[in-house]
Amino acid sequence: xxxxxxxxxxxxxxxxxxxxxxxxxxxxxxxxxxxxxxxxxxxxxxxxxxxxxxxxxxxxxxxxxxxxxxxxxxxxxxxxxxxxxxxxxxxxxxxxxxxxxxxxxxxxxxxxxxxxxxxxxxxxxxxxxxxxxxxxxxxxxxxxxxxxxxxxxxxxxxxxxxxxxxxxxxxxxxxxxxxxxxxxxxxxxxxxxxxxxxxxxxxxxxxxxxxxxxxxxxxxxxxxxxxxxxxxxxxxxxxxxxxxxxxxxxxxxxxxxxxxxxxxxxxxxxxxxxxxxxxxxxxxxxxxxxxxxxxxxxxxxxxxxxxxxxxxxxxxxxxxxxxxxxxxxxxxxxxxxxxxxxxxxxxxxxxxxxxxxxxxxxxxxxxxxxxxxxxxxxxxxxxxxxxxxxxxxxxxxxxxxxxxxxxxxxxxxxxxxxxxxxxxxxxxxxxxx
Length: 433
Hints:
The protein has about 425 residues and is of the alpha+beta class.
């Protein structure tokens, strides 16, 4: 029956999964809602299951035992490990691509192959498995370049090298220091593109495509896009520069041909296709594909969502007809990541976090937990690099930014680090237009 409740498992324990859980919990059809492993914030809307996101056998056993209706996979690692295939083989609905589709993120070389076959504009790249050959190529072509580990590296395997010294150091990190392990058995040296970055996420189910609102991500650790590359220090949505005509162009020139190529290869993709794009002077180019909801883009997108997320993901997982459009709130969302001291390098853990309730008390503010755990006396403490994402909603970017940073100011933990310029360019664009 259309009205029966659905039991849902959300795999993952970061701020992205917290945002997914909060959005799914709003659905009138939600039954049991479980996070694996979840986090202390997720406990407000779901039951946490002490199973790691990468523990595919235990997750499969739980879904079988509890007869979970829908599994929503947040992170990329379990998808690349074949979790979706294992569950679908047993007859369970999963939102997340199988192993062959997840290779779009699991192998940057494979993603390039798909893009070339589909005629999708992308940055030129050469692939190397040997340090000396890569170095010789670098000396021949010079900098700036982008050096990428082929495999999964927790969002940190992409190094923008503006100088030869930086490029040589990046190759050494991959081939000699083995910072990224097997993920850097193959390394891409890619053309450096300039422009404005945009993330376009689409719900895909076979041949069906349901594009979501565009978002913008901030990868560098420090204000002004300085510092080390990170998993993401903030985001905002929508993106004022991406007006309707450009949005349609991105869907038509990037998303549709990519999905058509996946279908041609016999890949039944059911999940999010995330296109990381650079808007260059000569047109949009693809920087990367991901096979899941982005983090921190999801924390800016889902608070704006007015459609029923559960109905959308349930239809996509089952191959049912997707709705023609997605309903969004009319305003803006600005998400600011609060990280531990030293991020993206190793940092302290166990520092007490205060002020989250005060931040929630700010109008239009939501706080999504990531690197947190409950310490002695059930006090909330830090447990990872990116600790929290604070999202502000508003009628304008100015209002959304002000609310987000008011929320950030209410929260305190030792060494808390965040950027102060998230969505500043969107606010300035808004003032000029």
